[in-house]
Amino acid sequence: MTWIEERAELMNSQWPGSGDSWGDRTGPQPPSPGGGAHGASGVPWHSFPPPDLPPPAHPGQPPLSGPPLAKGNAVLALIIAIILTLTCVGVTDVIGIALAAVALSKDQDPEEFDRYTRWAWLSNFIHIGFLVLLLVLFVALDTV
User: Fold this and answer.
1) Global pTM exceeds 0.70
2) CA gyration radius, the chain
3) Which single residue of 16, 18, 48, 141 has CA 20 to 30 Å from 68?
4) Among 49, 56, 95, 96, CA closest to 74
């Protein structure tokens, strides 16, 4: 028996009535052996999820809400914050490290993840801005 025939037999066994789907439908249909909305096996016809859908969430788990988070943005913010801190030009970007680490820990809450990732990048850009300003001041004072 091929896969298609097996699936067709499984689907036919879940519907009430005979397996003859093209038979005479003008008269009343006999009740199914399981009664009500049950198939021939007595199991509700809707108890099996379609094969292309994910299984339903269990009561204690959050529902699937979309694609998985792209953590690369937060990881890159963390790496840049660590590099900026290790360059010995200041330890002010420890805030960026902390914010990126918190963002990576918020993988169950996409809104919090995005919020902390934005704050980590903002901290990095502020730190880079201070470094550029400091470099411009040193160059300007050196030429005087």
Assistant:
1) no
2) 31
3) 48
4) 96
